[in-house]
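Predict structure. Input: Probable septum site-determining protein MinC, 209 residues.
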Amino acid sequence: MVSIKSKNLLVLLIEIDENDPQKIISQLEERLSKKFFSKNAEIPFLIQVKEGVEEGVIDKVVEYLTQRGFSYLLKPAEKKGTKPSEVPFNFENLKGSNVLIVNKNLRSGQIIEHAGDVLILGSVNPGAEVRATGNVIVLGELKGIAWAGYLGNKDAVIVALKMQPQQLRIANLFAPVEGSIKDKERPQVAKVVYNKETNTYELEVEPLV
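Output follows.
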């Protein structure tokens, strides 16, 4: 079975819980008409994977969608056990109950805290805060506070389609928000990189694509 969720057609969130790629693709073709593909090219998508789904299945679904003009918002890390600077995004596929999906905008004073990844299908307004032991993904505007890997996970990332935060933090590292985001209209990713010259870890923000 495959289900599709979206927030004002901004991003497609595709949930997959079986290992038959042809069946999944057939369901996608039923739900996403040819007219939809032609009118909404380059819409980004995320895949939420249930336990037991094989990696090869996901690869075929990703290939199908990218061939039709959609763009994969986040790619998994190429390999595990490497320093953060050695992979473009150290982000594993969203899996099962480790993901908290919040289908609303967060207002000032609201705090979301979760032991796992947090996916916000909306915006985080000033005064709101998201804390996750894993990754924080905001499919809207991030204008509040985001803290990923708050138990010390430097491999976590923070992603937002529009990054205008009050504060960014990964593990115990802060990002210099002022002046660090050059193109606020493009999706951005905050991640930890290893500086070989200083032998230290630093938090950097750069365009996602």
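Residues 2-72 form one domain.
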